[in-house]
């Protein structure tokens, strides 16, 4: 009888459960639509095409107050991506260093790193963002302090101005031949990678160890520097100058960006450090001893034996830390950084009053970013995964 | 947190069976309390005092409505709302009336389906700058960094003003008034802009108010008033005429001190009609004859409310200006009670 067939029975019950769940969501959805209509809240995304009428202080693409709300959202999205990428890179560097150093035999170094980890991962990231921003605002001088014959503050190296509004750094100015220098530099990067691959293959095939550090640096910089001088210094610097109320010229790194970036990086870096430590400890001690018995030096043991194996343990949780950084970047509003939450979920939402639409769209944007990061990191994960043949 | 409010609203909307929202008056009377949406804390307009009692200019409107409808000015449940959550809270029925420095604009009235029940404060947006900056007009602010509270109409006015005058600026968006104050005082922005009433309230809290000047330019019109949901005309009438009663009371000299005496009957037919000793205007509103008497008795007339919360004798120190009675050259003008 069919009913006695476990396979058939389980499919039937799963199908019935699926229908029930679908019916529940359909009922919730229709009820929601009916109630929203009764409350006079119609769902409409027309506002995205209307002009936004507000300004944003950091725009990576062209934007003015006459642009649409959609464009404002995209400006916000790019700002979110910018701070997330910066924070992911910085957090990874901090995390790897802190994780490795926490296992150091040096008592002071390992305790310092333990303190860092425990301090930063046990205080909410919002608090860190606000603390760093407040310290920057209170401690760094206002631009007016740079004014006058005997100013209270001066620019570092005559190029960098640290103010409580942000950091002003010189901007590279490219003459047409400057692109040639950049092209040569890009070619150097490619050849450096090629050289390192060659060196690795040589090591694996013939057991011959070629020096990598000095040749890489030489390949990287010598041609570009030679070209720079040969072409008559085609890359100049635009140095920020104090004029009117603010510094002008150069590149401005807003205080809010720096505070958010730094806070996210050191906070998540503490988690990544623990990850890295767990990964390293997961490689059995015998591996280190075997490598040492073969005559490898400690740094090579770390690079060639431990880390490649540890990465299999480190990478999967690293993905979720990157996702956390991206999602935590929505705390930007605390310091007035205009990310996606600040534009679409903040000003646009307020000005149009379309809260439900804006929040739904916001969720969609974050979902898309997170899924994209997951997909990318999964590709990397499958590259470092244990190859089973 | 704000997201969860909205999602919560969504969930509640999804779960609850449809309730028609057109009988706010009877709902409020049945419930016995008035749900009033107010600011999260702006001294003078809506802020809890040391004992946790809400007080302020916007709060007084809610108390007057509660007195008129429920015969008890204390029967108000205050819900503090941010600039983001306020409209959803009103539309979903979480509050019956939103009395929270909300500027009357076309889209809020028409597109978002709300009704502004009147204007209780005529405001305009201004700038405050440190005196040492040597700026005497907003036209000299080209290139300045300006702190602005996000989620308000001020952001849009600021953008329009600089665009119109062909000037550059850098906005520093800030979530709350107190953070803006901190940033401004630290010099992280050259100027701070918000409604002139808010500037006065903010400056009053500075250590050295004299070191800061409010620039003479008022760059926008900000008519502030309480609002209710569109489509519930009876409720809108109650709120509208309660405010009108407060304004008319000042014009006719009805104060909390003499109201009991005037209630006995006077030679002025209009005062008699307002206080219910002649005709029965209250019945037409679905209330009783004493509705306006109670509303005025609760906190005094419009002038008394103004003087007590934000007037010149308070730390906020606002002059009546546009908010004087029309007989004194202001814009406060209540339609006739007849």
- How far do the termini of chain A sit from each other? 43 Å
Looking at CATH, the homologous superfamily of the largest domain in chain B is Periplasmic binding protein-like II
Judging from the principal axes of the Cα atoms, what is the shape of chain B?
Answer: globular
What is the averaged pLDDT score of chain A? Answer: 87
Strand arrangement, major sheet of chain B: 10-9-11-8-12
Q: Please trace the helix and strand order of chain B, writing H or E for each element.
A: HHEEEHEHEHEEEEHEHEHEEEHHHHHH
Family (chain B): Belongs to the bacterial solute-binding protein 3 family.
Signal peptide (chain B): 1-22
Keywords (chain B): Signal, Transport
Domain Solute-binding protein family 3/N-terminal (chain B): 33-262
Written overview of the protein:
The complex is a heterodimer of chains A (389) and B (338). Chain A is mainly α. The model of chain A has no long low-confidence stretch (mean pLDDT 87). In chain A, the strands form 3 sheets. Chain A has a 3-stranded antiparallel β-sheet. Chain A has helices spanning 6-38, 69-102, 107-121, 125-139, 178-206, 213-230, 255-282, 285-293, 298-328, 340-352, 355-384, and strands spanning 161-163, 166-169, 171-174, 235-238, 241-243, 246-248, 251-254. Chain B has 338 residues and is of the alpha/beta class. Mean pLDDT of chain B is 87; it is low at 16-20. In chain B, helix 9 packs across helix 13 (291-299). The longest helix of chain B is centred in the last third of the chain and has 19 residues, at 233-251. A 5-stranded mixed β-sheet of chain B has the order 10-9-11-8-12. Chain B has a 3-stranded parallel β-sheet with strand order 4-1-5. Chains A and B meet through helix 1, helix 4, helix 10 and helix 11 of A and helix 1, helix 4, helix 6 and strand 10 of B. Chain B: Residues 1-22 form the signal peptide. Chain B: Pfam families: SBP_bac_3.
